Amino acid sequence: MTIMYNTIIMKIIRIYKNVLVILFLVLLVSLSEAFGQKENIIIDIDFPGGNIIVEDDDNVSTLYYDITGDTILIRPDLRDTEGNWFYWYFRVTGAASRTLYFQFPRGSFISAFGPAIISDNNQSWKWLYDDVQDNFNSFSYTFGPDENQVRFSSTIPYLQADFDNYISLYKHNPYLSTGLLNTSEKGRSIEKVYIQHPESNPKFKVLITARHHAGESIASYVLEGFLSSILDQDNSPLSPNRPNSPGSSLSWLQENVEFLIIPFMDKDGVEDGDQGKNRRPHDHNRDYSGESIYNSVASLRDKVAAWGEGKLKVALDLHCPWIRGEWNEHIYFVGSGKEEIAREQKKYVDILLSRHSGELTIKPDKSILEYGKAWNVGIPPGQGLSFSRWASEIEGISFSSTVEVPFSINNGQKITPQNARLFGRDLADALSVYLQGF
Ligand SMILES: [Zn+2]
Hints:
This protein is an alpha+beta fold. It has two domains: 2-153, Sandwich (Immunoglobulin-like); 160-436, 3-Layer(aba) Sandwich (Aminopeptidase), CATH 3.40.630.10. Helix content is 29%, strand content 21%. The chain is built from ten helices and 20 strands. The strands form four sheets. Strands 11-12-14-13-15-18-16-17 form an eight-stranded mixed β-sheet, with helices on both faces. Strand 7 (116-119) and strand 8 (126-127) form a beta hairpin. The N and C termini lie far apart (87 Å). The site of zinc ion has 4 residues, from loops.
């Protein structure tokens, strides 16, 4: 009888081992806090967007790591990524008054201004360093005496909760409506957002997408600025010094253009903290030929076929590039391989260059990465079409383009949510002038 009970107990322990370990760790943190002991530092990723692997951990769990020393070896969790990538986002608890050294022994995964951080002491995201760094493999952080929790990330994250907060500001705006494009593979809602005149028919239509690559969060701040500038017109809180002028470029957009916007093309990747880029067998931005394997892409292709009505003139896809180096530290458009599309891209970018008023600089000679240069040499056959390549074939379209906005540094400037939003406003303003030329 006793032997049977023992066997059953052993079985239960085996089955619930991971849960018990997590409960034990949580208990340990609570106890050490209660008794003022700070020996146990916990690194975890148990929140939306979380991603890290602690290198020398004896594999307690993929969500929690119990840390004892001052130096922590870490790397991004690549999951189903082909090759290397650099998105990471973790939380440190219980390190008040300590200095910790974080090292990435397997590669350079830190941006020019170090990690983005947020903590009990500092409620909004900021970059750790004020000056450009030349160490991309490690950083150290001294936790304040009251800093019990600090989050560190390769860039400033933007998740579902951020979007929900943002869009709720406009729930009574008559020009805005939201709906469901489809449900993701893991059952999450993939939103579609419309900006349209409540009564009159639009002259033109514009399609905007973001987060085909999950980790590229700065694109979402650009999108916020784009949306706000049209919804708020010149009363936008983004540009409080601008007078309200009914004849402005932004109010023209509101009156004449219908927008379809998909804020998260890879919703699961965003919330799960995946890299997204170079996902196997192909990522969301290589899913636009043959039969799409992702629900969001399949639905968008269907949707646009019916929605466009020959009025769809411009399609923009917002991205961030690699973390640093040439063509990764300034804003640019990816030049099309189709001559007529490339010509219209240039026309639009020239308008943007002549009018933009946001803080982030755009260098004329680096504003378009022409087709055939640097990495922009086309997608090898059989690897799947990108959004912008697919959109360039839509009947009546004037141009489509990928827009690259860096993760942390733009021509030496620090990227912030606010200056990224102002760039979004500039995109909208230039779009209005461009479309009024038809
Ligand atoms: Zn991308």
